[in-house]
Amino acid sequence: MNWKQFLTPVKSIDTEQAKTYLDGKQVDEVTILDVRQPKEYEAGHIPGSILAPLPELTDHMDRIDRSKPLLVYCASGGRSRVAAQLLSGQGFKNIINMAGGFNAWTSEAAFLGEEKGLALFDGVESVESALTVAYSLEAGLKDFYDTMAAKVDSEPAGKLFRQLSQIEVKHQDRILEQYTEVTGKAASREDFEKGPVPEVLEGGLTTEEYANLLMPSTDTLADIIELAMSIEAQALDLYLRASEKAHSDAGKQALLQIANEEKTHLARLGQLMEETIE
């Protein structure tokens, strides 16, 4: 028996330190490992985290990139500490245990299982197709914000939804730029918009699914921003999961770049929240 796995000291940081650590990284620079059970993961998880339940951890080791730092978490920190020790004993380096676990996590979270929304990327084997799917998801979210702007009675709320809609237009513009950068071809908004706008929003959920999961309120501007942040967190999670399933390295890199854009969008929404609640 390899007793080292039980004796190796494990570095631990709290959830605030973990958020600061992740904020300073690109999405593909660190692996986030969730060692809870599938139902716990579905109820809420850190965007982009890989599910590897502790009882099955050894079966998932081939999925984990040994060259990257590894942030491990569970519900409260107990299982993740054991997992970190086990991983250390198996030769993994630079492992960090998140003390307090997901129960103490107060930042953005994603929902549902690892396969949710991935059907949207079935058959995506090129950069072009990956960016086309991403563009259509942005279009779906823009339409949602436009619809909400027309529905709400409050003028400040309507103005904020219109502002969020324009942010999605900027997201679409960035995808068009990325398309040109990667392919060397001129990107036409008209060509990208020929396809139907999907019923799902960015993040892979329908409007009804978001409503059932998040029970969003539009009573205050902060509520609206919180809804937008939840959707962006779900989108970040979807793009990271889809990148792991990509059929080509070029498609994977395109999805990772979009994921990094989503992370930047989340940070901007956080700044907007700070300005709103002052």
UniProtKB/TrEMBL annotation:
Residues 26-110 form the Rhodanese domain. CDD domains: Ferritin_like_AB, RHOD. SMART domains: RHOD. One of its GO terms (molecular function) is transferase activity. Pfam families: Rhodanese. SUPFAM superfamilies: Ferritin-like, Rhodanese/Cell cycle control phosphatase. It comes from the Bacteria. Keywords: Transferase. This is Sulfurtransferase.
